[in-house]
Amino acid sequence: MSRTHRRRTPDTAAGGKAAPLDVRRTLGVLWPYMTEFPGRVALAMLLLIGAKLAGVWMPQVLKHLVNALTPHNGALLTVPLGLLLAYGALRFANVLFGELRDGAFGKVAERAQRRAALKVFEHLHRLDLDFHLSRRTGGLARNIEKGVDGISFLLRFTLFNILPTLLEIALVAGILWRQYDVRFALIALVSVSFYIGFSVWVTEWRTEFVRAANTMDARANARAIDSLLNYETVKYFGNERWEAQRYDDSLAGWERANAQNRLSLSALNSGQSLIVAAAITAMMWLAARDVTAGRMTVGDFVAVNAYMVQLFVPLNFLGFVYREIRRALTDMQTMFGLLDQAPRVRDLPGAPALAARRAGVTFEDVSFSYAPQRRILERVSFEIPEGGKLAVVGASGAGKSTLGRLLFRFYDPDSGQVRIAGRDLREVSQDSVRALIGVVPQDTVLFNDTIEYNIAYGRPGAGRAEVERAAQLAHLDGFIAQLPEGYATLVGERGLKVSGGEKQRIAIARALLKDPPILILDEATSSLDSAAEQAILGALREAAERRTTLVIAHRLSTITDADEIVVLERGRIVERGRHAELLARGGAYAELWRHQREQTDHVLPGSPPALRVAEADTA
Prior knowledge:
Blueprint: H1 23-34, H2 38-68, H3 81-126, H4 129-134, H5 137-179, H6 182-229, H7 231-236, H8 240-292, H9 298-337, E1 361-368, E2 377-384, E3 389-394, H10 400-407, E4 415-420, E5 423-424, H11 430-435, E6 437-440, H12 451-456, H13 464-473, H14 477-481, H15 500-514, E7 518-522, H16 530-544, E8 548-552, E9 564-569, E10 572-577, H17 579-585, H18 588-603, H19 609-618
Parallel strand pairs: 3-8, 3-9, 6-7, 7-8
Antiparallel strand pairs: 1-2, 1-4, 4-5, 9-10
Helix pairs in contact: 1-9, 2-3, 2-5, 2-9, 3-5, 5-6, 5-9, 6-8, 6-9, 8-9, 13-15, 15-16, 17-18
């Protein structure tokens, strides 16, 4: 795979230009979720039609009521009880059918939201590490949240507002034409057309302001989440004011965009009100003339007025609905657009699972770069036999951690092969490869849950006894015993309530609970003091005895028992061998060893020279 395309395009929420709205495609992605309950959808449509028919017939009953209550040549009036009951029944039916419709369709909308959110969530977990390193997690969460809300709004208001309103317009126009005059129907249709055309035109103009407000809102939320997740770092450098200023800059942009949005909304509402007022005035003028000419009764005048009010009340609401549907479609497109992000690392069609109880690891002429300008690994080759332990050392940026990422198949090499049990990792499924590997990372991040949950995450469903055994192997049981809530202790956001060493022991415990045939220890003891390091090294050595182990090390004292040590410099292997051999050779490894010994002497200046020599010989 060419590395020239590895870099991701900027996130829209981070300031990139939004893609044009593709309504057909967005609705096409949503449509399959609608077909899960066809019976409920059909029932909701029937109830919708029933509600509208009841609503349209109410002005007719009202007309007869008014005429019945209007004196004719001094005739004695009686209460038209039947008409009153009919009017009340129609009004109740209009509301009842609407409520039943909402109840029938509710499960359809909620299931569509659930299915869509799950699909996007699962897809995000299928994407490669590079995607997640280049996107803001807070912005992604915001996009999913707004997209799911957009689905609910779109389904409910499109089916229960726009379609019913169009149906009502057609019915009202037909009644006005049939019972009165074509002029009434034309006024209704022309005013509706002007109203819809004006609303669409102005809404398209102000969409840019809405999008800008959404972008700044997402940016402000992403900055807030990023800052709060890095609470300790903010405190270390006293950058509370700096973070507040950055957050306020985003809010200021949101405020400016919202001001433009608000002014454009006022223009839209004013124009819509003008069209509605003109249409109703024209309609009432015609009706009033016909009443005075004797061509219409007072009941007809009331009915025409009721029809216009009944028509323009939902039509006035239609302007708001159109604006919100436009926003919902934009939010949905942003969410479903995440599905267009293709993972860089993909399984071949029909890729088999890699099953192995014990497995060796081979890197053969592996070259890799995150960007074409800088090569990270250059023709790296080594082999770890089954049950063997290989350590990789070198300066920062030499490519040590990249080896672990390639073995875990977060990335595929540019050239060469990474093999487990003789199989090229690109020929087998990713899930099966990762099931064989346990990782203890340098930077351990914990879930905001209990210690037990974080350890058991290594193998969901593991029993309490197995969790406790893993904690013992990681020398974590003593610390847990001192806690008032024991294993039920909450570790806080990203594990902020426990120390770095405790977080790393939890990571070791859950890797041991997974019980994989291959272990990757990426600076696994970097956050531990010397006493804790020696205790955990014993546990790690015990766990590694029957596993193939790749150790990425900074402290050379932790890998003196490795079967082979590989020294990396600028992505190339410059030395390899056992600890004693490399020291005797006096090359790059010996220089690293000497440098670390000097650092230890500087930290412990009172340590006798003879003791330091003995320590080196023993190691």
